[in-house]
Write a sequence for this structure.
């Protein structure tokens, strides 16, 4: 026997469709403290109407709260090219869509990622090395094709550059033995 209607249970109100096949299963809306929630409820062996799936029209305004009761997880479909995120308590959300050429970057543990816009050079040549500034600008260290030049660190806060070998001779690696000619 299938029932449809409105009922009140304690302080909760339900608009529901119930399928009764000897066990209890219901799908519908629940008004709890002025917040309407979609619900699928079933006892062991019962199958909620729609096989446990709820489809929400994307034109719905406002927030939709989905909470698994008794374990389980929520599977939701998000539109708009954003990234699906999760809070420390397991609540799903989205980052929203980034703009063209943005990268999704971590903000640290427990914090939602954010979109960032790096600046890249228009072209690079063979032997060039990409470097980054503190302002999120990607630059180029050129000179990698000059014979005898080495990539040299220039101190904290400064990008490395290619420079002539300061030793003026042939460099050796620690642990090398023998002589260079």
């Amino acid at each position: 026997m299938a029932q449809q209607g409105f009922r009140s249970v304690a302080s909760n109100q339900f608009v529901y469709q119930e399928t009764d096949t000897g066990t209890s299963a219901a799908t519908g809306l629940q008004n709890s403290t002025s917040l309407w929630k979609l619900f699928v409820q079933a006892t062991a062996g019962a199958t909620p109407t729609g096989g446990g799936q709820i489809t929400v029209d994307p034109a719905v305004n406002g927030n939709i709260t989905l909470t698994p009761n008794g374990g389980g997880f929520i599977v939701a479909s998000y539109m708009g090219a954003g990234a699906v995120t999760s809070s420390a308590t397991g609540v799903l959300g989205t980052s929203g869509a980034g703009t063209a050429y943005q990268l999704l970057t971590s903000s640290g543990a427990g914090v939602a990622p954010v979109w960032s816009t790096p600046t890249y050079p228009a072209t690079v040549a063979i032997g060039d090395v990409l470097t980054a500034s503190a302002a999120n600008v990607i630059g180029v260290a050129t000179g990698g094709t000059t014979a005898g030049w080495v990539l040299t660190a220039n101190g904290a806060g400064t990008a490395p550059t290619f420079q002539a070998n300061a030793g003026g001779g042939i460099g050796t690696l620690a642990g090398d033995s023998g002589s260079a000619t």
User: Anything to note?
Assistant: The mean pLDDT is 65. Residues 84-116 form one domain.
